[in-house]
Amino acid sequence: MKKQAAIVLGSILLLMSACSSQPNSTAPETASPGPSESDSVAPEKKIDLKVGRYSLPTWGYPEGDDFANNIWYRHYADKFGLNVTHEWTSLQSEYNEKLNIVIASGSIPDILMEISTNQLETLVEADMAADLTDVFNEHASDLTKEILYGDGGLGMNSATFDGKLMALPYMTSVIYEPSLLWVRQDWLDNLNLPVPQTIDDVMAVAKAFKEQDPDKNGKNDTGGLAFSNWLFDGITSLTGFFNGYHAYPQTWLKGDDGKITYGSIQPEMKNAIAKLREMYKAGLLDPEFGMKDTPKVVEEVTGGKYGITYGRNWNVYMYGAGLEGQPEMIWTPLVAPSADGKDVFANVGTTVVSYYVVNKNYEHPEILIQLLNEYNEMAYGPKRNDPEVKKFFAFEDGQTIVEQGHLSLVRTLTTDEATLKSLEYVIEAIEKRDPSKLDEALTETGKYEPSVAYLDGKGTGYMEYHQVKGFQTTIEHYGTDRLIPQAYSGTTDTMRDKMGILGDYEREMFTKLIMGAEPIDAFDTFVAEWKKQGGEQILNEINAVAKSN
Amino acid sequence: MKTSSDTARMPVLARLRMRFKRELPYHLFLIPGIILAILFCYIPMIGIVMAFQKFTVFKGWFDAPWVGLANFKYVISMPRFGQVMFNTVYISVLKIIFSLLVPIIVALLLNEMRSRKMKRVLQTAMYLPHFLSWIILGGIILDILSLEGVVNSIISAFGGQPIGFLSSNTLFPGVLITTEVWKSFGFNTIIYMAALTSINPDLYEAAEIDGASRWRQIWHVTLPGIRPTIILLATLSLGNVLNAGFEQVFILLNPLVMDSGDILDTLVYRLAFNQAQYSVATAVGLFKSIVSGVLIAVSYYLAYKLADYRIF
Amino acid sequence: MNYRMDGKKIFTIFNYLFLIVLGLICIAPLLNTLAISLSSASAVAMGDVLFFPSNFSLDAYTFIATRSEFLTALNVSVMRVIVGSILQMLVTFISAYPLSRENRDFRMRTVYVWFFMFTILFSGGIVPLYMQVKTLGMLDSMMALVLPTSLAVFNIVLMINFFRILPRELDESFRIDGAGHWTLLWRLYFPLSLPAFATILLLAMVGHWNSWFDGMLFMNQTENYPIATYLRSIIVSFDFSNVRSEDAALLASISPRTTKSAQIILATLPILCVYPFLQRYFVTGLVLGSVKG
């Protein structure tokens, strides 16, 4: 897998150097010499494309544009003669529910965007999705293939049913996902404490933050370690804590024997839970954490109640609102401290975020592939730094830069290796205050200017800068080789029926165990019950599938 | 009586025709309602077949694989199903009782108020919580009842120990019932207030002349006057005996009170976790419908037999 | 006698006190929301705000003023309440009239009543309803919001019971004058049942204002969302487990609780104003007045 990724990276770099030697004045509106050019239909022939998609209330548009009339759609019309109409739209929070109903009613738009594994499987089972095998082979550009196969084919495999490609995966880089330890540096400094390096340090810092008035306001209004009742959320999470014990909750793990097993039922979990019990007893956890969901805990962290919490690189975005009241707030991201001094690995999700599916009855399934080619070409291709192309991803609205890359119908992220390399360029550029190498990066280049502005004490780049710090920690300590991805990403029959119940049972038991409402040995009962109530069956099904692949 | 000697002598057919002619306007009045009911209720009811199918995607109502009672068995086979059913009925019955009693009492008390202005202001205030969804109220309730919340501050001020209202299995159902009643009583009070206005003031005058005290007036005039409304609302709310309030419970439920707070709807939600399991949801819905239907029919019959009152 | 008067006084004082406290408890959440909407975001995050604004700021409201979606949604809701309530009241009124007759006057009555009751007991669920509305070509139109809701059986049943309280003699006297059913309905039933009518109208309006699910289900374009649907999508918490790094920045700009609270306040105010207005009709003794007159 690593080897393949290296090849991909190599070829992307090759592409990049090839581009920089070219005069790059041709705007994408005029025929661009990309791999997709030969595919493009003459604009005279209009093709209708009906889609259902979501929007967020915070999306911005340039003057005169709106959701249904944006720069991307106009470009599609020019280049492919494509007439995009929104068969339906919804806000992001309702998208999944609306999609379920639309799918169940049996009539879907021409292209379904960003659908879940379950929805994909339903569509395939109901014979509503188009077979993309041939059109993909015929139309996919090299760049598209490189990105989609960038994870060694796991993502494409998950979109393949009986040897037929039924969907295109929306790839992501899992290196965004390790759960880091975030500590308030200003509080550490106030108390003259070093950054925590072991789990015992974490406990000591939590204790100091709780008891020694780290914000120096003379009030006993701070708490210990913050996390939400989801336990293993993206932010305000416990995932990093468990990783410190080499436990990987809610992850399908490949065992030493090659068989897939479930992270939450491994014996390492028990050790981590035992430590949390100790912390709970010492008053270092919120006595009512079981009642507080992520937004609630985020609010408390933002309000200055907590200074130590685990979360992904982007968690400071959520705490930013508190800056106004506590301008001295500085966070330091750290690798999740280890319980025994051994290296810490991070469990991460799958490389696929969601899928794109074409309606079986749509006459132009190749459109989906062409649109993805086009996106990749513009986002990651040689001309990505052309101002004409950059317009598609962001525009200036007065002082602020507003993103609009999400308006593209089809998107994907780059591979881990490419993301990693890009992050290194960005970090280096910020360190040296030299944006010249930024052009080589494929993604995250937007972090440069705000971060530099923040470091210079002007501008609002607080959050961007902190995220870059998070990137740095991730790269230094996890890279791509200390990640444990999900060993299985599909849905089996029993999983569909039982996983919701099992997940809730798990959360209930872990909560009770941490709070001491059950003896620690009840963990073993949990493991047995989990298996009995369908977990064993699910593992058998997963292993059967894994074997057949 | 209606059967006057004239109509009695008429031939049956003519009598029927006359009755039809007399009743025809009534039928005509009902046409819009009937059309709406057929379009938006009866035709979609075909979907109930999903309860007996393994439905994923619509291909025709009778083309999904038939599974008999498998969907029902699946729900019943869930661990703790018995406890969940108990919680559902326990919470909803208490909610029904208090949601009936509290508005009556408040309506009577409001009715005792002389100041019409005050009455209006209070009534407006009381129906405010009705407008806030559980998503908003849930957050506020969590704040108020938390260990550091207002209620516990008051308890501590009086020297008591802070109480974990939302983490105690003994207190949690009480929290659900209290907050539900608090949210809805103002609105039901309005219905009773409207019913109170229809009581003939002559009756009070007569009672006053007889020297009946205010309590006796309430007992002998007011309550009988609004009895039909009470019976009606009681009967209709019986239909909710398996609806313990999904949104509210879902928002306040947490792992520590699963034993006392998990209800049928939250269980189904977890079964259909992130997943469009319409068959299971329909099966549970059908089960709930049948239970409600039976309860409503029985109470309709009882009200008719015992109180000689046709509810609807 | 003296003793009784004292008891009455004590009762009155306690009654006032009790009801005022009850009223305050009911205002509390909205007051809290209002206070949050008028505070600065950081003060809210610090947990400083309970019932009084801290760091008074109108930022949240000025922010909303710049968002056209909010006003569009408000507009859809107002339209929906007007059209929907009128339709629903009309159907409720003309359906309740025949159903409030005695069985001997209208033999099919019981059949019809159960025909309607059946619809509140049994339902096929959301998918068949969605498909039916789609078949009727009403997706994305105001029709989908106002037609299915115009048959409100619960309200019809309430209305039947209010009609039945009206004195039968009035009915008969009108009939003797040779008045038709329409005359009877509009000249006698409508004015006499005004308090009930106002109550049910309030139920109808509030129902339309608050209903969010059908907006999400039937409206194909977010521009057509009524305010309740729009509001819910703003308030509902995000599934943080699914947030991608690239979207985090977008989410960060949504989160201020002040903005959410301001939208709740703005979306609740219009319907709150309806109640005092309708309350004028909840006047005691109306029935008696017309009987005497």
UniProtKB/TrEMBL annotation, chain A:
<protein>
    <recommendedName>
        <fullName>ABC transporter substrate-binding protein</fullName>
    </recommendedName>
</protein>
<dbReference type="InterPro" id="IPR050490">
    <property type="entry name" value="Bact_solute-bd_prot1"/>
</dbReference>
<feature type="region of interest" description="Disordered">
    <location>
        <begin position="24"/>
        <end position="43"/>
    </location>
</feature>
<keyword id="KW-0732">Signal</keyword>
<feature type="compositionally biased region" description="Polar residues">
    <location>
        <begin position="24"/>
        <end position="39"/>
    </location>
</feature>
<feature type="signal peptide">
    <location>
        <begin position="1"/>
        <end position="26"/>
    </location>
</feature>
